[in-house]
């Protein structure tokens, strides 16, 4: 879907996927920088092609916008493509793992399409509890969980932890596709920083899980256990065991990491 919106040839998907995986490698800065360089060069090629032969896609419309340079269009379009592709691919995998790990809910969205919206929201809410956090600086003095935070001090805000807050979600560690409150998750942020691509991501996930049949043994490993994506973007290491997805590590109740004044 994101390819069509931007006017990116679908046959380039494998190469693009390799570049995005490299760009997202937080452990290897050289590989990440090369991935970003390759993405930008690819974006420049796309912009040049759209200049020669305009279409009805986003890149063509940006090219037709006065005052927007080719490099800016290339950077913006690749940022949109990266954000709309990599994150959705990861979320599709995580959603499939959750359905595999809960056999009683696996086929429910297909049997009852009315459940798909809630199921997708629960897939967005449930996977991770400690993503490392988003850096923010306190604008005023405040107190969180008995900890005093002074204006100007750095905080790491963890959306994943908020999604497992028992004050907001009953039995937060239970995966339940019928959960009514799931849509109040903070996976896409909140307020002025709410992700602009959230409606597209929801639509892609809803379409994928409505049309997909999540099998049992065929999607499992030789030991009958569902495969878990290693080191996924939502933080704590997870392991699949039988019909449960468990979370390793401590169960800290802290929702905010206070790093102090920089």
3D architecture notes:
- The chain is mostly helical.
- It is 42% helix and 10% strand.
- The chain contains nine helices and seven strands; from the N terminus they run H-H-H-H-H-H-H-E-E-E-E-H-H-E-E-E.
- The chain has helices spanning 2-6, 13-23, 29-52, 58-63, 70-101, 108-111, 116-125, 159-162, 198-211, and strands at 134-137, 142-144, 147-149, 154-157, 238-241, 244-247, 256-260.
- The strands form three sheets. It has a three-stranded antiparallel sheet with strand order 1-4-7, with no helix packed on it.
- Helix 2 (13-23) runs antiparallel to helix 3, helix 3 packs across helix 5 (70-101) and helix 5 (70-101) packs across helix 9.
- The model is unreliable at 217-262 (pLDDT under 50).
Proportion in β-strands:
5-15%
| Uncertain spans | 217-262
Largest sheet: 3 strands, antiparallel
Radius of gyration: 21 Å
Q: What's the total helix number?
A: 9
Summing up helix and strand content along with how strands pair, one would put the structural category as: mainly alpha
Q: Helix-strand pattern, N to C?
A: HHHHHHHEEEEHHEEE
pLDDT averaged residue by residue: 80
Strand order of the largest sheet: 1-4-7
State the helical fraction.
40-55%
Q: Sum up the overall morphology in one term.
A: globular
